[in-house]
Amino acid sequence: MWRDRLLLAATFTAIFSADLYFILLPKLRRMGQGSRQFCSCGPSNISLPGQGGLATPHLSNWTYVPPLGALTTDSTGSKLGRLFAHPLYNIQTPALGPEEKLLLVEQLMEYYRKKMSRRVDHSAAAVSNISVTEHEVTFDPDASWLKFHLGINRYALYSRDDPAVPQLLEDMQGMAVVSADYTQDEKALKGVCDCTQVVKPSGHHLKLALKMHNFAKAMFKPMRQQRDEETPEDVFYFVDLQRHNAEIAAFHLDRVLDFRRVPPVTGRLVNVTGEILQVTHNEDLRAVFFTSPANNTCFFAKCLYVCKTEYAVCGNPNLLEGSLSAYLPGLSIAPRISIPNPWIRSYTFTGREEWEVNPFYCDTIKKLYPYNSGNRLLNIIDMSIFDFLTGNMDRHHYEIFTKFGDEGFILHLDNARGFGKHSHDEMSILAPLSQCCMIKSSTLVRLQLLARPEFRLSDVMRESLKEDPLRPILTEPHLLALDRRLQKVLRVVQRCIRRQGRDEVVTKDFAKSTGKPQTATEMKQTR
Ligand SMILES: Nc1ncnc2c1ncn2[C@@H]1O[C@H](COP(=O)(O)OP(=O)(O)OP(=O)(O)O)[C@@H](O)[C@H]1O
Ligand SMILES: [Mn+2]
Q: Which residues are noted in the entry as Mn(2+)-binding (predicted)?
């Protein structure tokens, strides 16, 4: 009996020691290593992309800093908070030299001071013949939109913890609108569309530039479709409506993916009478306003095939939902060029582009400047993943800032044709990825993270979109489609790896561009 007890005690001690040695101790050691790995006290050795191209700097230069700001805290067990606190989302770029910033403070202030003085002259002249509500405009050098402009650098439009971004979203939601006008591209068009072509030249959509009382400017796209309406099957992507909620959701998705290539976008209820009709100096814009039989104030786009009143948008009776996208710095101070997407679609009923019929299309592209070196092709592939997730087939061009030359990031502007069909995944949008079989390592690890249940893409997007005043921005089926599509992206990558090997497919954020940065003229010649 006594011997039995001794035997039992000895057995338990042995089991406990084995457990301690083989399981608990290694676990503790791993935890210890883990906290050292991501500490802010020295160079990081995260097993992530290692080589660092120009648009993704070398990791040994990057340091982990604890998350900052309301967007990144995790006091309530939020998945988004945990995502943004993850080491992958806290790798800081090295200190930026003046050449790596888009704008210099003095240059920007001077530019806007001049613009302000011109505005005073203009409004004084304009009041004489039309009754426009004149609002006070004040130039605030500390305004969030100026801080956003000043934060743009060669890596992204804003940094993760930049407090100017949430501030800018808040300002765009609540500030008084002091003027409204057509956007530049719409003015260039002067309401004319060539209807012999299926594709309009540009910008026949209802979109306006709104200016706030602190001189902030935003592009307004009104609501044209209910959240739960799906694009009918027989509608071509190029005649599909633009969706204000797609613009908003795309900004959030781009931030969740950590690209930061979409300017900040927020939803807002706009008073079409008080904040557009009564503050515009543009006679053409005033002329497209009318009152509907239901006594709602409406306006329509001045273009041949959407100028009819049945295509108008109406307030209820004055309030209308829309997206507001923060303007980028003007082209005269921060020039950008627009480059045709190599995977452009034909924009006709019958046409086929080469990429649709030639499975080796990418081999040709890889040899062509500027896709033959640097990050450009990988950035196009990032963009195709982004567009596939939203279902946007309308990426005919992309824009880059000329200042950063070939190594600059690609702007993801105009996302309004995404989120049209939740029940369909348009695999052809992924053609750059599936045909080139290349992906940045940094993009892949983030996608893998977002596929895990603890960070599930639909969950972090649902949470992020709750911050918008027009919530809910996406219906549940659209949110769930994001998870399904993410799995499809990962499957395409897996297939590539199986065929070609990991080293060929997963690019360690790419080698440096071999050539010197090109001038704008050189770049234009290649278009
Ligand atoms: N946030 C922004 N700041 C500054 N310019 C912008 C911004 N968003 C868009 N633009 C400019 O306005 C142009 C038209 O915008 P957008 O593409 O969103 O409208 P669109 O009606 O779909 O035009 P298009 O038919 O040319 O695609 C863009 O190509 C871009 O140059
Ligand atoms: Mn467009």
A: 414
Run of H or E including 397: strand 397-401
pLDDT tens digits for range 48-92: 333 333 444 444 334 344 443 334 445 568 999 999 999 999 887
Q: How far apart are CA 11 and CA 13, in angstroms?
A: 5
* pTM score of the predicted model: 0.82
- Closest C-alpha residue for ligand 1 atom 8: 413
> C-alpha distances in angstroms, 132 versus 270, 273, 321, 431?
17, 11, 23, 50
Question: Could you give the residue numbers annotated as active site?
Answer: 394
321 is an annotated ligand-binding site residue? no
Structure tokens at 40: 């802010």
For residue range 219-267, list pLDDT tens digits in order: 999 998 888 898 888 887 777 788 999 999 999 999 999 999 999 999 9
The CB of 207 under 6 Å from ligand 1? The reply is yes
Task: Give the CA diameter of the chain.
Answer: 111
DSSP 3-state assignment of 134? coil
Question: 3-class DSSP state for residue 181?
Answer: strand
- What's the CA gap between 457 and 253, in Å, rounded? 9
- Please state the φ and ψ torsions of residue 299, each to the nearest 5 degrees: -150, 160
Residue 116 and residue 19: Cα distance in Å, rounded?
Answer: 73
Would you say 326 is a known binding-site residue?
A: yes
Torsion of CA 160, 166, 67, 511, to 10 degrees: 0
Q: DSSP string covering 267-291, please? A: EEEEETTTTTGGG---HHHHHTEEE
DSSP 430: G
**CA nearest to 292, candidates 318, 269, 322, 321:** 318
DSSP designation for 512: P
Q: Are the CB atoms for 410 and 399 separated by under 8 Å?
A: yes
